[in-house]
Amino acid sequence: MNRTVKKRKIISFIALSLSTFSAIFGLFWLVFILFDVIKNGIAGLSLDLFLKDPAPPGMGEGGLRNAFIGQLEIVFFATIIGVPLGILAGTFIAEYARGTKFARIVSILSDIMVSVPSIVIGTFIYSIMVKPIGNINLGAIFGVLFLSVILAVIFGGILNIVVNKILSNVSIKSRSKINFINITVVLITVLFGIGTFIYLSPKLIDRIQGFNGWAGASALAFIMIPVVLRTTEDMLTLVPWTLREAAFALGASYYRVIKDIVYRSAITGIITGVILSISRVAGETAPLLFTSFNNQFFTLDMNEPISSLTVMIFTYAMGPYDDWHKQAWAASLVITLFILLITLIARYIINYKFGKHKAQ
Questions:
Q1: From the first residue on, what is the mean pLDDT of each consecutive set of 10 residues in the chain (360 residues)?
Q2: Considering 209, 234, 267, which residue would you say is the last residue of a domain?
Q3: Nearest-CA neighbor of 309 among 283, 336, 343, 275?
Q4: Which domain holds residue 227?
Q5: 133 phi and psi, to 5 degrees?
């Protein structure tokens, strides 16, 4: 018996030692990288970095204003595209397709998409939104289609809220009438999307050519969607089904149950997933090399190539000039601090929610 206990203690000690060594080894390189970025990045920080555009090579002046603004613009539109689609898809899988084979397939595919290298997504978006196919400007068509879908989703959500507000004040007991109203709302939303596409097509298709900011935003949104989808699905699945049954017993429709009960219970986890998905795409370079490409000049026009901070870091780090290297380090520090800030916000939201529940 003593020999067995001694053997178990030895195995436990070895396992604990290896685990501790692995943790220290990983933390060492993390601290080393952060220290290197901070040491080299602080030297390049200045107001000119944020307020001036790039100077000619070798001039030793200028900044990265165009890259900072371009990065914010691309990430903003990627969030506008990816987050609503991810939340809606996760809601459908967790609520309407719960337990079905289709839901399991989508969940597996989402897990695979999370692990797909970003450069693969970049080349995919390049093939459908940047590279022309014959005389058809397919990229512009997809860009306008994406924009029309997002506007239709936003319009449909607002219309749903307004209609349900009206229905809550009007006593309608007939289930067929309620279903007819819901179908009408869906049809109006679809017609709005089609009308938006028809209206925007002649105005935007001829202006979007080759590399453009919409393609870059779509590539980042494509990366964000599976992250938001899986987070939303997991958070909604954790909400006890008894809460839904209690709301059903009071006569609430499934839409109101999801909006007022399920979303409110899972909002912290959903917001955390959204924040983490933003931090996931904030440092991506490869997808933007194939989509938005780069622009040495300041522009806010998403219909043309647009600069991004990660691509500028890549370009400057590979360049032969010391001032380029200095600005690349400073930009790396800014992105690192941005991702660190987003991660801390996500952790604070989680701790605040659980701390609140624990206190109650």
A1: 81 93 93 90 88 80 88 91 88 86 86 88 85 68 80 84 75 70 86 91 76 88 91 90 86 80 87 86 89 87 87 89 89 89 77 55
A2: 209
A3: 283
A4: 47-51+58-125+220-359
A5: -110, 100
